[in-house]
UniProtKB/TrEMBL annotation:
Signal peptide: 1-27
Keywords: Signal
A Pfam family that the UniProt record links to this protein: DUF6318
Domain DUF6318: 52-207
Database matches in InterPro entries: DUF6318
Protein name in the entry: DUF6318 domain-containing protein
Domain of life, source organism: Bacteria
Organism expressing this protein natively: Enteractinococcus coprophilus
Amino acid sequence: MKSSSKKSAAQWLLSGFTAFTLTFSLAGCSQTAEENPELEKTTDASLVETAEYVPASADGPAQNVPEPQLPISATEKSEAGAEATLKYFWEAIDYGRLTGDTTYAGLVSSESCDLCSDLISGWTRVYEEDSWAVLHGNMALEVQDLDISTEADRGETIAGISFVMTEPAVDFYEIDGHLEDDSFDTESTADWWAELNFDETSERWKIEWIGVEDHLSED
């Protein structure tokens, strides 16, 4: 029997935003762990025994999911840095979708970003309630426009990014079986908008606001 709490967690994630997944491979320059342990590290692959990745299925959630790596370019106060941060955010959300661990997404999320907080807590909640997601395909993200400006009165560097996301169909499962009412059987495409602020203290971009562009007129 379905639990109402499990159902609400899955339904919230599909209500208005469907499910999120990303398979971007983000490139960046190498940096030592001592300089910044959160940034991507270069390791001799021959010295590391990597467990085989197991995709999510009706039998259970994904296993041995590669952890997202924050690219060095995210520290650049540039268009490239802002775009890399946006893509990393969705990669980190995708990791949370597959594992329930959304701490990586928090690295580039401002406390003022409501949707960031909702996604971070929402995916964590799904797995805490012994549910998991199976996506049929990969999300495609295409940046349409990116503009950087400086607010003279506050001395802040702001990036506005318009992008299109196509999200795949998704099925939710729990130990008792398929949550048919919570699943989404078709892919969807929408125009999105994100605003990022360059944090001078942490030397990285952080997302201040993100959402479907239709919601801009409502704010």
